[in-house]
Write a structure and sequence with these properties.
Layout: H1 2-14, H2 32-56, H3 63-76
């Protein structure tokens, strides 16, 4: 598993993403409760805050829907 994480992080250095908000990182856990805690604090709450700012500016919100779609696909796997 460590090799997969190392290869994934190396690929972000080889092929940098343009206009990203923060640098990608991988975190693994064997505890499902910890996974859901980090999901809430690292994805859901920031997504809600960004969506709130986008709605206040008069545009259509986007981030929570994207995180929900990603969560569903991860859950299916």
């Amino acid at each position: 598993m460590a090799d997969l994480i190392e290869i994934s992080l190396k690929s972000t250095e080889d092929f940098p993403l343009n206009s990203i908000m923060w640098k990608p990182r991988l975190m693994t856990t064997k505890y499902q409760v910890w996974y859901y805690v980090t999901l809430i604090f690292l994805h859901l709450i920031p997504g809600l805050l960004i969506d709130g700012l986008i709605k206040l500016s008069g545009n259509k919100s986007l981030y929570v829907n994207i995180h929900f779609i990603i969560y569903i696909h991860i859950y299916i796997l």
